[in-house]
Amino acid sequence: MILRLLQAEAAYDGLLWPYRVRADRIMVWMNLFLLLVCTALAPWRATYAVVGLVGLPTMLLAYALAQAWPGQLVTRLFMGCAFMAYTGLIIHQSGGDIEAHFAAFGLIGVLLYYRDWRSIVAATVFIYLHHLVLGYAQTLGVPVYVFDQNNFWVLFGVHVAYFLPFIAMMVYLSVWLRREGYEAQHVIVLAQQVVQGNLMDDGTPSAVLAHGNMPLVAAVQQMKRRLLDLLKVLPVAAAVVRIDTGTIVSINEAWERRIGPLGGKDDRIGESPIWADPATWSDLIARMHSAAEKLINKTEVVLRKNDGTPMICELSIVLHEGVTPVMAILTVEDITLRRRAEETMKRLAFRDALTDLPNRASLQVALELAINARDQGGQSGVLVMLDLDGFKPVNDHYGHDAGDEVLRTIGTRLQWLNQRADVAARLGGDEFCLVLGHGITAPEAVATAEQVIAAVSQPIRLGDGGPSVCVGASAGVACLTPEVHNIEDWLKRADEALYRAKRSGKNRVCTAPECQMG
After folding, report:
1. Residue 19 in contact with residue 180, Cβ under 8 Å?
2. Tell me, what's a Pfam family for it (predicted)?
3. 140, 242, 448, 487: which sits with the fewest CB atoms below 10 Å from its CB?
């Protein structure tokens, strides 16, 4: 039972440590004061030797303990006993005229300074033993002067009897003062945690809470829990970062679920493996400090989860400079799926699903850019329109799957052959287009079209070990001359040249009249 009582009492020592460190310093000065009192009384009965043997070592040991173990239990116990040692020394120096009543003032000092009943009990046991041992020695003729009368056992019993209620009251008061001091210190610590954004650590020992209600502590803890609940319900991952140390002090459940838990209490955001680029955090902090509103709103960065998986995120940071230390709230929204969906939609909108070539919409953009460049004095371009020859028999004989395979192969050959082409696109069906720029001449465009026809005419094997088929191509070339007014006009001229190539026997190239050969 006594062991459990002492263990429960020890639970308070951590937060009361600041009180007790200050009390140690006060008690050292009190020891010095009492040593000076004893030195001043020494001439009365020539007690210089006992002051040197008892008072001076007590003072030096008090100072040493306060330096070596400030606020610790061993120091508090010694300080209580030291006060009683000086009490006994003064009684001896007065020849017993000043009795043990003086010890009550020492206990009050210990009570107010330390708020620890263990120190009071130690001081009480010390003074009782002093009276018992040295008082009995006085009755045997030893000149120690504890009592001013010789009826020792009666005097000792009277001192014990009237002193015990006072001791009990001191112990009771020390318990309440200790609890109040603990509660006040704990409220300060909890408030500092809230200000610093640390909502995750509680730090209240269960043994302490079991001693009784602490309404102030409970109120601050409830405030912390409500703030933590608000942080938890945020749909995006959130973290509170201490700017001066760069330490993550709190995260919410979304952060743990989507990014991962903290590795320890000293997690530094700048050194975290979440950054795909280690310089990202320092760059963000520099941007935030230079921002007028001290915030970064939804900037796109690439982060990594704890397992190394990359993710595209929208990151926001709000800086709170009104608190010390300065804190920042960091929110991270994973937009990887959104970006993939956007890329897929963009691809579907501007790429041909079968050949993965740019589609008609992409071709429209390329043609418009070429016309704008010409109108602004840039180099003109050339449009080559292609139509496969002999493609329909492949579809009819081998089926549409084989026809799709032929189209995919043709698309791959166009991409490989036309490195200089701005766009190699599929118009639809078995029609393709090349938009050639970079100051290409009509003869060069014709030569390119002939290379494409030769490549298209190469056999295509269907599947693994399947039959080979051959298709040809006809091409129409239209130059972007001043006579071309718009996209539709340009396409029409290329289509007319293609029609002439088809009508002329296929597998050949024809040019629009405005293309000047040579």
Report:
1. no
2. GGDEF
3. 140
